[in-house]
């Protein structure tokens, strides 16, 4: 194929991936923040010269270069040690997992107040909806911050206010608010002003951060139970995989299981044999990542058939997979293991769910009908109830006529 035809073919499949109605099951709120929002929040930090922000914007610096300025300011004010984070920030091509967590600490300094949490929740939903995600499970770690009068509950309330504030698309987030009408499957880009608004189902998963104590983890599970009629439908275990012990979170995860709350766990981001085995024995409803399993663990995983949230770009950028070509997606897909494509941290890794579908087509040669089947299969693994699943299936049926 000559270059021109190749470029045209790539454009066509990229657009098709955007138009495909998609289900996102693994997206961290603070990892999905818009770069422009981080920049604008940055500019409100006291003593930060507006000139610095303007220069950063005008010079078109790479997104992740800008926290260097933030880090310097925070360093000057004694909030962090600038030298500790400088090298991480300056890296343009992939960061190790520990390096990502240093960046998350910086992001949290910027985003952890009620108004900013509300803003980013609203924008994250708008961004996923804009690329035809029709069902979004967004996960976030409820945070306490006494200085800002923030409790875990008020943090989640602030997220929910963000979901309610979305205007560009109808957000169906209350568990009692399912619709019997099929969702619109018109790409956002093709909607006129007077066309009926597009809909997106949004559900929340509350994350337990691996740095938390057993008691804090239990608080998160109890909060999820308390807020189950407000769109909270599951529990996630995440955070820096080299921090913490499985035994610390187990009582909270066990409690969630007893309460009937669906659970997803970040598993095998590092080769921690004891923990991977414990996670497989615990047998949650879904697993995220599963990068560093040994032969025996792969065998167990496949026989357990636990659905996997696959995060291609994230895994390659953080070194969990050696390359796209050698990503474990291929093995799991060929083994017909249940899986769903996800973004993980679309802001941090500059990706989108459409791009993840495109990467699967470009790297592993999946056809449109195979990609469509992947989107359809993901509906099986959502934590929402059967009414939502039926609605999503009806909508995908309609979309099939247009796309295939
Ligand atoms: C493990 C991750 C993650 O909760 O503040 N998080 N945990 N592995 C990953 N892969 C790279 N990416 C994100 O969103 C940010 C938090 O999500 C978890 C980390 O705990 C991070 O601090 P929230 O909204």
UniProtKB/TrEMBL annotation:
Q: GO annotations under biological process?
A: adenosine catabolic process; inosine biosynthetic process; nucleotide metabolic process
Question: What's a Pfam family in this record?
Answer: A_deaminase
In Swiss-Prot or TrEMBL terms, this protein is called Adenosine deaminase domain-containing protein
Q: Which SUPFAM superfamilies match?
A: Metallo-dependent hydrolases
Q: GO molecular function of the protein, one example? A: adenosine deaminase activity
Residues covered by the Adenosine deaminase domain = 83-394
Which organism is this entry from? Answer: Eleusine coracana subsp. coracana
Cofactor(s) for this protein? Zn(2+)
Q: Does Endoplasmic reticulum show up as a keyword for this record? A: no
Keyword set, alphabetical order? Hydrolase, Metal-binding, Nucleotide metabolism, Zinc
The record ties this protein, via InterPro entries, to: A_deaminase_dom, Ado/ade_deaminase, Metal_Hydrolase
Q: What family classification does the UniProt entry report for this protein?
A: Belongs to the metallo-dependent hydrolases superfamily. Adenosine and AMP deaminases family.
Question: What gene is this protein a product of?
Answer: ga28914
Reaction equations catalysed: N(6)-methyl-AMP + H2O + H(+) = IMP + methylamine
């Amino acid at each position: 194929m000559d270059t021109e035809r190749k470029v045209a073919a790539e454009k066509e499949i990229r657009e098709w991936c955007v138009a495909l109605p998609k289900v996102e099951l693994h997206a961290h709120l603070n990892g999905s923040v818009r770069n422009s929002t981080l920049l604008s929040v940055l500019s409100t930090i006291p003593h930060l010269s507006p000139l610095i922000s303007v220069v950063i914007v005008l010079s078109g610096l790479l997104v992740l270069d800008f926290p260097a300025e933030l880090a310097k300011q925070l360093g000057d004010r004694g909030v962090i040690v600038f030298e500790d984070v400088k090298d991480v920030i300056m890296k343009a091509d992939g960061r190790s997992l520990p390096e990502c967590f240093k960046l998350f600490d910086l992001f949290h300094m910027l985003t952890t107040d009620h108004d900013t949490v509300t803003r980013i929740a609203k924008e994250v939903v708008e961004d996923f909806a804009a690329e035809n995600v029709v069902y979004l499970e967004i996960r976030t770690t409820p945070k306490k911050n006494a200085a800002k009068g923030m409790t875990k509950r008020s943090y989640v309330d602030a997220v929910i206010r963000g979901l309610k504030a979305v205007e560009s698309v109808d957000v169906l987030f209350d568990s009692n608010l399912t619709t019997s009408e099929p969702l619109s499957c018109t790409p956002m880009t093709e909607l006129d002003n007077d066309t009926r608004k597009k809909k997106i189902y949004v559900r929340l998963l509350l994350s337990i951060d691996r740095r938390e104590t057993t008691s804090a983890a239990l608080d998160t599970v109890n909060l999820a139970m308390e807020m189950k009629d407000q769109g909270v439908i599951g529990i996630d275990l995440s955070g820096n995989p080299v921090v913490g012990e499985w035994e610390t979170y187990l009582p909270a995860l066990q409690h969630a299981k007893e309460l009937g709350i669906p659970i997803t766990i970040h598993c095998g981001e590092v080769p921690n044999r004891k923990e991977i085995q414990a996670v497989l024995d615990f047998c949650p409803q879904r697993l995220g990542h599963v990068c560093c399993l040994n032969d025996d663990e792969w065998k167990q995983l496949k026989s357990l058939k636990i659905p996997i949230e696959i995060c291609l770009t994230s895994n390659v950028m953080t070194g969990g997979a050696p390359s796209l070509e050698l990503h474990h997606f291929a093995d799991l897909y060929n083994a017909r293991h249940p899986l769903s494509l996800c973004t993980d941290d679309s802001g941090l890794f500059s990706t989108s769910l459409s791009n993840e579908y495109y990467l699967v087509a470009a790297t592993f040669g999946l056809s449109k009908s195979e990609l469509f089947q992947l989107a359809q299969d993901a509906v099986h693994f959502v934590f929402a109830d059967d009414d939502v699943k039926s609605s999503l299936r009806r909508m995908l049926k309609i979309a099939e006529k247009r796309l295939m």
